[in-house]
Amino acid sequence: MCHLIIEISKVFSSPVEYCLTYEVVADQTLWAVCGSNADHIAMDEVSKKASISLDVMPLINGHLPIPLVKISKYFPPSKGFRGHRNQARSEVFSPGEVYNKSKASQVHVIVPSANNEL
C-alpha cells in the first residue's frame, strides 16, 4: 500500500468561482485504488492550493505508470431564475488550462520475494 498525493495549484484568477471535481483513473490490472476514486474539492482562497491523499496498491512488479488524475470544474446546485434549483454540473477544462506535471510518469515497484529475510 502506498499514498498517491494529488496537489492542485490555481495559477490565475477566474471571474467565475467554482469547485473542482477530481477522478483517479487507474489501469485495474496494475493498481487498486482504495476508497473513493472521485470527489469534489474547494480550493483554499488564500493559498490557492488543494492537496488530496489516496491509498493505492500496486498489483504487479515493474515500472508502472502513475494513475491518471482527471480534473474538471464543478458547479454545485444553486437557486436559479424564479427560485428554481439548477442542478449540479461538471465542465471539462479547455485544452491548455490544466498542466499535469506527472503525466506519463512511472514508479518502479519491487515486491520482496517471500523467501527473503528482513
From TrEMBL:
Classification via Pfam families: TRAPPC10 (PF12584)
Residues in TRAPPC10/Trs130 C-terminal domain copies: 18-110
GO cellular component, one term: TRAPPII protein complex
Entry-linked InterPro entries: TRAPPC10/Trs130, TRAPPC10/Trs130_C
One Gene Ontology biological process: intra-Golgi vesicle-mediated transport
Superkingdom as given in the UniProt entry: Eukaryota
PANTHER family associated with the record: EPILEPSY HOLOPROSENCEPHALY CANDIDATE 1/TMEM1 (PTHR13251), TRAFFICKING PROTEIN PARTICLE COMPLEX SUBUNIT 10 (PTHR13251:SF3)
Protein name: Trafficking protein particle complex subunit 10
